Amino acid sequence: MTQMPPNPPALPDAPLVAGPEAMLCFNLYAASHAFIRLYTPHLERLQLTYPQFLVLLSLKDADGQGVGSLGAALGMETNTLSPLLKRMTTAGLITRIRSQEDERRVVVALTEAGRARAEQAAELPGCIARDSGMSEQSYWQTLETLHLLRAQIDTAAQKQKGGV
Amino acid sequence: MTQMPPNPPALPDAPLVAGPEAMLCFNLYAASHAFIRLYTPHLERLQLTYPQFLVLLSLKDADGQGVGSLGAALGMETNTLSPLLKRMTTAGLITRIRSQEDERRVVVALTEAGRARAEQAAELPGCIARDSGMSEQSYWQTLETLHLLRAQIDTAAQKQKGGV
DNA sequence: TGAAAATAAATCGCGCGCGACTTAATCACA
DNA sequence: TGTGATTAAGTCGCGCGCGATTTATTTTCA
């Protein structure tokens, strides 16, 4: 019923864009990578990659998770996380210990050094946001838009998997 | 002056999220990957990866570009594009020809098969959007939000590079 | 003119993403 | 109780992203 792409927005000052620029998915793709590039110099100082930074922040809020629940929180599969966590273990940031009561599970926890690094990492988003000069209102509005969008994508993914 | 992250939105029905969920960059990251996963089954039918899909659409609108300008349009570096374009050449979708008047430049153009594939690929965004059930208004509003966000990220990147 | 600077593309190495598959432990229930 | 299904994590292979470097061509200007 609700159709979409072609047709530029019927608004007065509509930007005359076409191709990838008119697609949500490309704009998400481009914005995500550009944002990560903005983080990169700060992350290098902390000796972290962007996905490692996300794992660190996630553990800071919920230490002692299993690999699967960590992946669910960050939208990563175990085939991404397993090698990544191995590298973070080598770097001395986390420990991975087989659970006693269920030997299939591996519990991931921050080391002392990991928690310290996480504290430093937690400063970055505010620091970047401040530098960007974005207004607080616009920040939270954009955040809400993205939450809604993610919910719609998840719904569509469910429908797709259900094969209706 | 304008500070940001911690502090949940001071709105009545503010979602009580913390950690990565409260960060713009993570929501962009998660939304982008989730959206690409939505595209993947359709792209497989067209024997394309997502970045190849973007290149194809970009060439459909502006054939005969150089590698650099293609990269500028899509936010990719030549070290990403060069191998990708080589694979697309092997697949018979594009041609890469050294420019006569400036032998540094390589002109990328669609083959017949490439143009046909691009036509098919151009159907996907509308198809996906229709399936998602998103309203047309919400689509264009989200698009504008993302364009504004990308502009702010670009501005911040400029400032960062300028080293102020 | 010719040597240094700038530009365009490619190559290399490493860390993700992710589809496909494997291994190992637990669960379900006939 | 045991055997098949399920679940959790890991391995493998390939295609990006991207920092660092290289090669080749053109531009600049002393």
Description:
The structure is a homodimer of 164-residue chains. In chain A, 62% of the residues lie in helices and 7% in strands. Chain A starts with 23 loop residues before the first helix and ends with a helix. With 164 residues, chain A is mainly alpha-helical. A three-stranded antiparallel β-sheet of chain A has the order 1-3-2. Chain A has a domain at 23-121: Arc Repressor Mutant, subunit A (Orthogonal Bundle). The first copy, chain A, has seven helices and three strands, in the order H-H-E-H-H-E-E-H-H-H. Chain A has helices at residues 24-45, 50-61, 67-74, 78-90, 112-121, 124-132, 136-162, and strands at residues 65-66, 94-98, 106-110. In chain A, helix 2 packs across helix 5 (112-121). The interface between A and B is large, with 72 and 73 residues. Chain A binds a DNA duplex (30 and 30 nucleotides) through residues 33, 36-37, 40, 49-52, 66-68, 76-84, 86-87, 102-106.
The CATH homology group name of one domain in chain A: Winged helix-like DNA-binding domain superfamily/Winged helix DNA-binding domain
The overall pLDDT average of chain A reads 91
Q: Tell me about the biggest sheet of chain A? A: 3 strands, antiparallel
How far apart lie the N and C ends of chain A? 16 Å
Radius of gyration of chain A: 20 Å
Query: Can you give the helix content of chain A as a percent range?
Result: 55-70%
Elements of chain A, N to C (H/E) = HHEHHEEHHH
Q: Compute the number of helices of chain A.
A: 7
